[in-house]
Predict the structure of Acyl-CoA N-acyltransferase.
Amino acid sequence: MPLSIVRLTEQDIPGAVTAIQESFSSDPYSDWVFSGQSKFDKNRNRVSLGIRCRWGIRNALFFVAKDPDSDAKDEVLGIAMWMPPRPVERKETWGEWLEGWRMWIEQAWMNCWYGRGGLNVKRYYIWKAKQAEAQSKIWTDPRGYYFLNIMVVKPDHQGKGIGKALAGEVTRMADQEGKKCYLESSRDVPNMKIYETMGFHFEKQMDCDDDGEICRLYCMVRDPQPTISQSN
């Protein structure tokens, strides 16, 4: 199947949100942080993901996959959002500070209008604390890491090489720059084997424990690999 990998645009956001929701409908992390789907507000979640997508357009490396030969050529089949590496010595810029506050204000407005939509706030902060702890131990390269923050492929299009094509947009860049990549997978099987084919290796298990209700995430790192020009 031919693929077109392009940067996310405003018109792609509805399709990107649909791809995320379909892919995470039975995801272990999603079930845990929303305490199951009984109180999950799909409309509220779409607004929240839309805010995140717009932030990603401005601040991240956000790619979408499409099939140019399909009758629905604008359908988003998968997405990958990467955070660019941040060197240890680099201080937060005013622009980054403002972007952080902008997203916080937009999320606060959304919460006032829609409520929490089933989000278990306690568990969300348990995850953020565990994530910060894991990254502080794993991220030893002072030049920073390309962080694969979101990677999804719609369920009916999995197994077609879409995820690998999406990841390749940034892993090639990381190889050329000699920098490492990082991700956190919510499933060990089959996700870890898939990511291993992209050059990632398992680094650490992250256990998010809420009084015995545990969500396990799997931290993986990809070392830079020689490019053709480097190997010659």
The CA atoms of residues 38 and 115 lie 15 Å apart. The first strand starts at residue 4 and ends at 7.
